[in-house]
Specification:
heterotetramer; C: about 150 residues; mainly alpha; about 65% helix; disordered N terminus; D: about 700 residues; two-stranded antiparallel sheet; disordered C terminus
């Protein structure tokens, strides 16, 4: 769309202002408010998850008692649920492509699939949490427990919110309240969903795959 | 014009006054004065601060002066003045970007050097492990030949030999504290789970005040300490005295007479009082928290082995005399808010006996 | 102005074309210009292929699936590496992190359209990521994550 | 609905009723319609009302924080003071700091940004009017939540910096204050993030035609930078607060040394937020001053682009200096040197700003009005704060000054002598715009001089106290320290400040309401907000202006002769007069976002959730209260998402269809196409925005 040619943030020239050309009066940046807001929110979320992941990373191998990641993680299991979440990104983007084509049946299909995959992931996480707790790892147990549960829990809450949004979209679409003109709603929620997915990509690597340094006892405690 | 002159002085008057007062203020006899360095470390720190402080004053005089000139010179005289519209000046911008940068670079160099200087630690120095507690300082003197071994433990008041760098390693058992004896050295945190290292040194014999500088809870204000710089001889004598075991109270012949009939019997001798006090110490709960070598080994409160050798107690908020001790023992939290030492509801006789006993712990 | 009327005349068409269950709701949400441009975009997208316009480079469904396949493959390799890590020694963590970064990039660039979308958006996100990486790596350095000795330097 | 227009108001009410029943309305709450009275303020989404509410609420908290400051000063006036107990004192200084940072300077700056940014950039409202209302209510509720802790077992007492493990391990600090502190700050963090996103999007997206970023008023610029910092800094403290929350409420070990947790992590996270926060607090005030000085010097801002870029530089560099709050932590010489140097060099862009302000004054024609006095006071006082900041960057000697009253003096010169002076100047400067009446100048000058003297008496001596070894946050000090004299001086100064505030309040509430109304442009000012009546109509601009230059309004009135001297354009008077009549023509109608109940409902739910968390700490069953709160919020968000931002315009289009675009829901900027760009301001809020809020919560 020619009308959305983006003026540079800092070096736009007045002549480029669409309104003066009698062109579509888009926003100054050419991006809608909602999308810009979502992206700035995602930028903010980078710092949020960055802090959580960093906390986990910092405390790797510093727990003074077990269990440790090594003897509790079930990598094949987590790999599958990671894969499920990764594929939900695909279904999400297919949903967006569908509404962009005006294919509302496929939109609902893919949105439902995305929500379903997300639910499978959350179900997997619930199962994982329960089994960890059975194996004696809670938030209170050690640093590993604290940082693991808080990090993955935060992510899980984000996924859950995403599922709620997706289901709302399905419902709206089914009631005919999601016309093609509102394609952007799908896009914005898609952005959120993909973000949650990329965060998990990082978590999967940093938390699950990269092993903790050995030894949770190298650090003598001088507390008397 | 007349008006603007007045205005300028109303603007600058308080500032000039402030500056004068600042100078006046430094002469005051404050006992934790950071500008009154009494040791090489504090002097090093001041040798950086004081010149930069005066540079800053100079810059301020420049800026304030320029503002003052503007107010006087460019004050509107009529409503219709048409000043020249200056939108900017590239050379000026470059100048006042680069000049401060050069100035700052020139103070950055000594700063970095001093940072590394402060991280040089003398070898074979006396090492004292200082542990922060809510709200008092514990000092573990290490053995001269092995810094991993504690030689003796004291609290609140530490001695150092004069003109000798002493390494203080800092940690804490609860929250973050901050060890600070301004006239000897800048502060450093005592953080639970970490060990920080600080050098202190005193030039002249004397008593130096210090206190915890990081907010650590209710009685943060009451977490003070003293560093006493001794001549080498005095210090050696002090160490010998501290290394000695606690004084043993003379065994009382009739320990319970005083407790059963308070105030009735003739005044017991100091010795028998003290001996009773030792028993009170063991039975009333003191021993659970306080260590006295050979008697108890509590670690919650200060080590009392040579309690009476210290001039202050309870986080250095009290002079170590019988009156203060009496008040303290009667109700510690009332004297020091939030005190971890509870009110043991001791009778006044028990208190007297305890004081008599503590008096023997020299 | 002409554009306004353009959008105006297009909108009912677009909405009409998409209404499925009858327009029980008047869909009264008035779109902002941002949405208006989307309306126009949507109009363009009514063509069989979602190409054209600024977002013309949008991948097709097939391309999305290819990207997903690549993502899946990388994940598989990651897990495989996890099981053979002993052979790779120290090179192990950087390889995994690189692969995660590639996945991150693929999702961001294609699924989130950062590759095709307005530069402003990329800046927001890249600012967030770069800022996060820099400051948290500094925190790691300060807190001794990369050194074997824990805690303070002293 | 709030269609602000000249057409007979009688038509609005029936229309409104008609619409409340349509599916466009929400299923269970009728759309609010009143534009006057209590409910109109509760449900308003007008950025100007919200801006005033922000500022007024902030000012109220300023008085509370000021009372706390007086208590502190009374306690410390003499050695061994007995006005407060140790625990009370600790609560008071914690609340003083928390209040002044989170409940005063931040929200007042946001309030000004709210009020001014749309006016300065030529927009009808902010990008997300309801999100704006949500931010305000959450800020208010968060503030009330924090202060309610005084009723429930004691206020926060761990310091505004809340160092772990003091705050993270229950039992170290008496009372429940730390829980209130954690949840209060979380609420305020959500509020400020939402508000910041809003202002960032507004500024980037909704500028009038022709207003490139480098023609944007400097205050809008500085707000933009500050809000960017908020967007990126808030999540860091959010995480830190969550970690403490999990430590306190659920037995996690993040900052528990006994389990290997590192308290220094808290310090890093806190100051990672805390230092950008300093610039969040000072940048808007710098912007305010940069607006005031040119107007009263009758000269443009000296080096406007340099001012912008130095602001950006400060914003960036603000991320690389946080360790200077931790020079005494013992982080090793490399880290300490690096951060010493980075801290020093942040003085460069700051110094550039100061010199540019002086450059603005130089050669001007200075009118020493009250706003100007505060602005000049800002320059001088902020310079002192900046210079003492440089002495703090000397990390070796800062080991003496940190955690003493020298620091207290330093940051009060920055935050009071800087931010508050800027804000006071801004209040005097923009008051006539917001309320149509000029604050009394005579009282204003008294206010300024009392503040100036009181301020210097209060905080000047603190430099000395710090150098003489008075640590911060002590509730008492011994006579032997010889600190009594300067503490007494400081206390006297604090009371002079309080008197000056009373003068200000008297001025605002008693004297000014009786003063005559002023024109649109009483100061002969430069920026767009002065081109519309005072107070501005709800829609701000009857016609969105097209901008040709920086200080566009000024250039409609003035030009320069060959020598660069100021020359009035012939139509000078006409331009100023037309500003007073710059309102919508009869029949013209401008669709504005409608009031809504849901912002306040959503924020209320979050506060309920926070109380539930506090109560749940003692009895797990009470966590149900939190669940209820979250459900209220989610319900509110759904209703919000389904409710259109603005009521549909059909009924009016029917009347005026001829001159407007054909009726279609996608069109808001109805009148005659000239205000094409207003439309984003009335953006529909599809569920996308709901989720914006939703993910926050």
């Amino acid at each position: 769309m020619a009308t959305t040619t983006t003026p540079e943030v800092l070096d736009e020239s007045p002549g480029e202002n669409p309104a003066e050309h009698g062109m579509s009066p888009v926003t100054n940046t050419g991006v809608s408010n909602e999308k810009l807001a979502m992206w700035s929110f995602l930028g903010s979320e980078c710092l949020l998850f960055g802090a959580l992941i960093s906390t986990y990373f910092l405390y790797r191998g510093r727990s003074l008692t077990g269990p440790t990641p090594k003897n509790i993680y079930d990598i094949p299991y987590t790999s599958i649920s990671s894969f499920v979440l990764l594929m939900s990104s695909l279904t999400m983007v297919l949903a967006l492509a569908a509404i962009q084509r005006g294919d509302h049946r496929r939109l609902r299909l893919w949105l439902t699939a995305t929500a379903l995959l997300g639910t499978v992931f959350i179900g997997g996480q619930v199962y994982e949490f329960t089994s960890f707790i059975h194996e004696g790892l809670t938030m209170r147990t050690n640093l590993f427990g604290s940082s693991f549960f808080v990090l993955t829990g935060f992510h899980g809450v984000h996924v859950t919110l995403g599922i709620m949004m997706l289901l709302s979209l399905v419902l709206m679409s089914a009631r005919g309240r999601l016309p093609q003109s509102k394609v952007q709603v799908v896009e914005i929620i898609g952005l959120y969903w993909h973000f949650v997915d990329v965060v998990w990509i990082v978590i999967f690597t940093v938390v699950y795959l990269i092993p903790s340094p050995v030894a949770h006892s190298t650090r003598p405690l001088q507390i008397r | 014009m007349r008006n603007s002159g007045k205005l300028r002085w109303t603007l600058k008057g308080p500032l000039a006054l402030g500056l004068v007062l600042l100078l006046g203020g430094c002469v005051k006899n404050a006992s934790q004065d950071t500008l009154k360095a009494h040791g090489s470390i504090a002097r090093l720190q001041n040798s950086l601060f004081i010149p930069v402080f005066w540079i800053a004053v100079g810059v301020f005089v420049l800026v304030g002066g320029l503002v003052g000139v503007c107010i006087v010179k460019f004050r509107a005289r009529s409503e219709d003045e048409a000043p020249r519209q200056i939108h900017g000046h590239t050379k000026a911008e470059i100048a006042w970007t680069i000049m401060p940068a050069i100035l700052l670079a020139s103070i950055a160099i000594p700063t970095v050097k001093f940072v590394f200087d402060l991280n040089k630690f003398p070898k074979n120095a006396i090492t004292v492990n200082v542990v922060g507690h809510r709200w008092w300082w514990q000092m573990d003197y290490t053995k001269p030949d092995d810094v991993n071994q504690t030689d003796f433990t004291t609290a609140t008041e530490m001695h150092i030999p004069v003109k000798q760098q002493v390494i203080v390693t800092l940690t804490s058992v609860d929250v973050i504290h901050n060890f600070w004896v301004p006239e000897l050295a800048g502060k450093l945190y005592a953080i639970p789970g970490r060990h920080n290292k600080l050098v202190i040194e005193a030039d002249t014999p004397g008593t130096y005040y210090g206190q915890c500088a990081e907010y650590c809870g209710t009685s943060h204000s009451n977490m003070r300490l003293r560093v006493i710089a001794d001549t080498p001889d005095q210090y050696a004598a002090w160490v010998t005295a501290q290394e000695a075991p606690a004084a043993q109270p003379v065994v009382s012949t009739s320990p319970d007479t005083t407790t059963t009939t308070p105030g009735v019997t003739a005044a017991p001798t100091e010795a028998s009082l003290a001996a009773t006090g030792a028993n009170v110490f063991k039975s009333a709960g003191c021993a659970g928290c306080h260590a006295i070598s050979g008697i108890s080994d509590g670690v919650v409160g200060p080590n009392l082995t040579h309690f009476k050798s210290r001039s202050v107690f309870a986080g250095a908020i009290f002079q170590n005399d019988d009156n203060n001790l009496r008040l303290w023992l009667a109700n510690p939290p009332a004297q020091k808010p939030g005190s971890v030492m509870p009110n043991l509801h001791l009778t006044s006789d028990q208190i007297n006996q305890l004081i008599a006993y503590l008096d023997t712990l020299r | 102005m002409s554009d306004t009327t353009d959008a105006a005349s297009e909108t009912p068409t677009a909405a009409g074309a998409t209404t499925l269950t009858g327009s029980d709701t008047p869909a009264p949400v008035p779109a902002d210009p941002g949405e208006r441009h989307l309306v126009e975009e949507a109009v363009e997208h009514r063509r069989p292929t979602p190409e054209g316009g600024e977002h013309g480079a949008h991948p097709t469904d097939a391309q999305y699936m290819k990207i997903a396949l690549v993502l899946a493959a990388i994940t598989a390799v990651e897990v495989a590496i996890y099981y053979v890590k002993s052979d790779l020694g120290l090179g192990f963590a950087p390889i995994l992190i690189t692969m995660a970064a590639v996945k991150f990039f693929l999702v961001g660039a294609f699924f989130m359209h950062l590759r095709f979308d307005n530069r402003v958006l990329r800046r927001f996100f890249v600012t967030g990521i770069v800022l996060a990486i820099i400051i948290y790596v500094i925190v790691f350095l300060l807190l001794g994550v990369f050194t074997s000795t824990h805690g303070a330097h002293s | 609905m709030a269609i602000v227009l000249e057409p007979p108001p009688s038509t609005t009410a029936p229309d409104a009723d008609k619409h409340a029943g349509t599916p466009a309305g929400t299923p269970f709450l009728r759309r609010p319609h009143s534009s006057e009275g209590f409910w109109s303020w509760v449900t308003t989404v007008d950025h100007k009302r919200l801006g005033i509410m922000y500022t007024a609420t902030g000012f109220a908290f300023f008085l509370l924080g000021g009372i706390e400051a007086l208590l502190i000063r009374l306690q410390l006036a003499r050695p061994n003071g007995h006005i407060l107990s140790a625990n009370q004192y600790n609560q008071v200084f914690t609340m003083h700091g928390t209040t002044m940072v989170f409940l005063v300077i931040m929200p007042v700056s946001v309030g000004f940004a709210n009020y001014l940014v749309p006016l300065q950039i030529g927009a009808r409202d902010v990008a997300f009017p309801r999100l704006n209302a949500f931010s305000y209510w959450l800020f208010l509720f968060g503030g009330i939540f924090l202060y309610s802790s005084f009723l429930f077992g004691g206020a926060p007492n761990g310091g505004w910096f809340g160092y772990a493990p003091n705050t993270s391990i229950p039992g170290y600090l008496p009372g429940r204050g730390s829980d209130f502190w954690v949840f209060g700050l979380l609420l305020l963090g959500i509020a400020s993030t939402a508000g910041a996103v809003n202002i960032v999007v507004t500024t980037l997206n909704m500028r009038a035609p022709g207003m490139t970023l480098l023609k944007m008023p400097i205050f809008s610029w500085m707000s933009l930078i500050a809000q960017f910092l908020t967007v990126f800094a808030m999540p860091v403290i959010t995480v830190a607060l969550f970690l403490v929350m999990f430590d306190r409420n659920f037995g996690a070990n993040f900052f528990n040394p006994a389990a290997g947790g590192d308290p220094v992590l808290w310090q890093n996270l806190f100051w990672l937020f805390g230092h950008p926060e300093v610039y969040i607090l000072i940048l808007p005030a710098m912007g305010m001053v940069s607006e005031v000085l040119p107007v009263f010097a009758r000269k443009p801002l000296f080096g406007y682009p340099v001012m912008v870029f130095s602001g950006i530089a400060i914003g960036f560099m603000g991320w690389g200096v946080w360790i200077h709050h931790m020079f005494a932590v013992g982080l090793g010489p490399v880290a300490v040197s690096a951060f010493s140097v980075s801290t020093m060099f942040i003085a460069v862009p700051t110094g550039v700003k100061i010199f540019n302000w002086i450059g603005t004054l130089w050669g001007g024609s200075l009118r020493l009005t009250t706003p100007m006095l505060f602005a000049i006071g800002f320059i001088v006082m902020f310079t002192i704060g900046g210079l003492s900041g440089v002495t703090h960057s000397l990390s070796p000697s800062d080991r003496q000054q940190t955690d003493t009253y020298y620091v207290v003096a330093h940051f009060h010169y920055v935050l009071f002598g800087g931010s508050m002076f800027g804000i006071f100047g801004a209040i005097y400067y923009w008051f006539p715009k917001a309320f149509g009446r000029m604050l009394n100048e005579k009282l204003g000058k008294i206010h300024f001089w009392l503040t100036f003297i009181g301020f210097n008496l209060t905080f000047g001596p603190m430099h000395i106290l710090g150098l003489q070894g008075m640590p911060r946050r002590i509730y008492t000090y011994d006579k032997s320290l010889h600190l009594g004299f300067w503490n007494m001086v400081s206390t006297v100064g604090a009371f002079i400040i309080m008197v000056s505030l009373l003068v200000c309040i008297y001025n605002i509430f008693v004297v000014t309401p009786r003063s005559p109304r002023v024109s649109a442009d009483p100061w002969d000012a430069r920026t767009l907000e002065w081109s519309i009546p005072s107070p501005p109509p709800e829609y701000n601009f009857a016609e969105i202006p097209t901008v040709h230059s920086l200080d566009d309004y000024w250039h409609r009135k003035y030009t320069e002769d060959d020598e660069g001297r100021l020359v009035r354009l012939p139509n000078y008077e006409a331009v100023r007069a037309s500003s007073d009549t710059n309102v919508a023509a009869p029949g013209q109608h401008i669709h504005m976002p409608s009031p809504s109940y849901f912002p306040i409902v959503c924020s209320f739910g979050l506060v309920v959730a926070a109380y539930g968390m506090i109560m749940g700490h003692t009895n797990g069953a009470n966590y149900l209260v939190s669940v209820v709160g979250i459900l209220i919020t989610i319900g509110g968000l759904y209703a919000w998402g389904l409710e259109p931002s603005a009521e549909p315009p059909e009924e009016h289009d029917g009347e005026h269809g001829g001159e407007n675009a054909p009726p279609q829901p996608a069109h808001l900027g109805a009148s005659g196409g000239t205000m094409a760009l207003d439309a984003p301001s009335t953006a529909a809020l599809p569920p996308g925005e709901t989720h914006e809020g939703g993910t926050e919560s």
